Amino acid sequence: MGLDMGSEQFSDEIGGSLARIEELLLAELSSGEDFLTEAATHLAKAGGKRFRPLFALLAAQFGPRPDATEVITAATVVELIHLATLYHDDVMDEADMRRGTVSANSRWGNSVAILAGDFLFARASRLVSTLGPESVRIIADTFAELVTGQMRETIGNQAGTDPVDHYLRVVWEKTASLIAAAGRFGGMTSGAASEDIERLSRLGDAIGTAFQVSDDIIDISSQSDDSGKNPGTDLREGVHTLPVLYALRDSGPDADRLRALLVSDSGERIPLVDDADVTEALTLLNASPGMDRARETLRGYADKAFAELAALPASPSTDALTSLVTYTVDRIG
Ligand code: FPP
Ligand code: MG
Ligand code: MG
């Protein structure tokens, strides 16, 4: 991600803490049964950015005890929860690949993947209990948000709800809520002031949403060689992200053509199969005002994040957090 960490010494300290988290993560996932350990460590070993633990560590810099064992524990709990949801998500999405490697469901089947996710959740629950009942409650509430978001996405937008509101609510529930919890946990476990803990939670919420919206924009605007991902993946899966929802609200011949490509007569979303359809939809979307509106929405969340940062006291992680927010905007090009 190329974050500006401020100083080399600070960067080394965070690197050391991330290594401790990695160690604890793998220790927690060892079960004593080889078949279970193999399935349970599959996604952790496949890589990942460890974005949530990193954010928890950066948030912990606002308290007097950023190096406390509890900070490492909290950051690991959040990553365990995140990984657990990915096992289940790949089953629901019938995804073959995750993090450049074969998904657990594709390798061992749905039952093993679901049980591996459950095992991660069990380990996260055990670990969070060492932080006390308040932490257990926060994780339970966050877990309920994740499930609510996943279910809201599954049942789809209901009549009477604006599709953009529905979309942003799902993003908050299934993505931003856990990043907000990472910020809250980092602040809490390092002993930050209560108003700063609330700010760190809101900062996580804004950064999480900004990241998702920037991902959505990149899926439409990128050339396959610069993002490392194939553009149009969401359209192929029949997923209508924020720029698409904005563009479908428009009128005129381009918006009509986009609707004909993406929405059936009965209002169902059409997953695009033909490469030519994907190329045409991407061309229409890139020329549509919906893209600019999505960029504006992204800037709005980034501004919210900057405002939370400005209200927090200066800390060793201020530069890194500022560069993280800047990155969500700059990465769209
Ligand atoms: C990925 O979204 C999925 C999530 C961020 C959250 C999934 C939440 C659950 C499965 C809730 C239930 C969890 C448990 C452990 C019972 P995506 O499919 O849009 O993104 P992807 O491209 O990463 O697959
Ligand atoms: Mg998925
Ligand atoms: Mg999904």
Structure description:
Its cofactor is Mg(2+). This is Polyprenyl synthetase family protein. The protein is mainly α and 333 residues long. Helices cover 73% and strands 1% of the residues. It is built from 16 helices and 2 strands. The protein binds farnesyl diphosphate and magnesium ion (2 copies). Farnesyl diphosphate is lined by residues 84-85, 88-89, 93, 95, 117, 121, 146-147, 150, 174-175. Residues 89, 92-93 line the site of one magnesium ion.
Radius of gyration: 20 Å
What share of residues is helical?
over 70%
Output mean pLDDT.
95
Low-pLDDT ranges: none
What is the number of helical segments per DSSP (H or I, 4+ residues)? 16
Residue fraction in strands: under 5%
Order of strands in the sheet with the most strands? 1-2
Bound molecules: farnesyl diphosphate, magnesium ion
Order of SSEs:
HHHHEEHHHHHHHHHHHH
Q: How many E-type strands?
A: 2
Distance between the termini: 14 Å
Question: Any idea what the shape is?
Answer: globular
